[in-house]
Amino acid sequence: MGEWTTPGKLRAKGIIGMNRRNIRYIGRYNNRRLYPLVDDKLQTKLLAERYQITTPALIGTVSTQFGVKRLGELLTNRSGFVIKPAKGSGGKGILVVDRVEGGDYIKPSGVRMSLSDVERHVSNILSGLYSLGGAPDVAVIEALINFDESLSAYTYEGVPDIRVIVFKGYPVMAMMRLSTAASDGKANLHQGAVGVGLDIATGTAIRGVQFDRTRHDHPDTGHELISLAIPDWPTLLQLAAGCYEMTGLGYLGTDMVLDQDQGPMLLELNARPGLAIQMANGEGLRRRLDLVEAQPEGVSPEERVAFSRRHFARRSELEPAAGA
Q: Band of the pLDDT at 315, cuts 50, 70, 90?
């Protein structure tokens, strides 16, 4: 990434920074009164149901300390589940249990937790330990995603997800986030997940990065990234584009997952999506955002997706890993 080291070269690449993102796009196109629709994962889930956008099944919620004591009953006969803070951010506070054995709740890493450990985690969520601003929170319990097996070689002890930036209803840039040992099985770039830029036209890999450095293969599985291709890509883009009508937010990050049985599903939304997606794609957002701003209003989601696939196509920069 050495060629991006000067302000002039960053501008030439069309890279946008936090100030431009916050003022030019978020400030202009995101009405603050709509933020609770995406800042609260429970509200997002209920809203998605109304708009017939598929999300992971809701097992239940815990909103009081009294409710924590009924957690064991709520989780009875569940072989796996995810517990997350409704108002959390950055992947903080998300607990994934992929199997239950002998009364122990086992994380993808193999770490065993007792029911008391899980109760303590939920109690911490309620106290606001992981929420935005430390506000009291609600624990949301969802069914475990049975992610598409075609992607298993590209991830380690976790479910990979796809972040799509949607501007005025147009999918403008996408990447897949692959969990690693360094990220503790979480698809979070700041914690060490691998980010793979995706061609908007085809859903295939463009380039990979980890800790801001180029990667050609997964650090734990050793699988090369050049062959990564997202199944059912047009449907995934269609769901992402539809989140514009669902929320009314003009600048939006949509996080999607691929379920083996149900296909693309909406995981969560972000009204202030990060900018690392530009690093993963080796290209800035500005040219794409400028082009979308010039388009007329009232275009259908199908037409918006077709426009993005036509205008934002990219060729892969990846080469097979050494020895492959």
A: confident
The residue out of 112, 143, 174 marking a domain boundary is: 143
Give yes or no: residues 75 and 211 share one domain.
Answer: no
Domain shared by 184 and 223, yes or no: yes
322 domain residue, yes or no: no
**Whole-angstrom distance, CA of residue 155 vs CA of residue 218:** 7
Does the reported pTM lie above 0.85? Answer: yes
Highest mean pLDDT pick, 100-104, 168-172, 181-185: 168-172
User: Does residue 266 contact residue 54 with C-beta atoms inside 8 Å?
Assistant: yes
Range of the domain at 62: 58-143
Domain end (from 83, 111, 143): 143
Q: How many domains does the chain have?
A: 2
Q: Please state, in angstroms and rounded to a whole number, the distance separating the CA atoms of residues 128 and 92.
A: 11
Residue 140 reports pLDDT greater than 50: yes
Q: Mind listing the pLDDT tens digit for each residue in 279-309?
A: 999 999 999 999 999 999 999 999 999 999 9
- 98 and 67 inside one domain: yes
276: domain CATH number is 3.30.470.20
State yes or no: pLDDT of 54 exceeds 60: yes
Instruction: Give the C-alpha separation, 290 to 297, whole Å.
Output: 14
Q: Are residues 134 and 159 in the same domain?
A: no
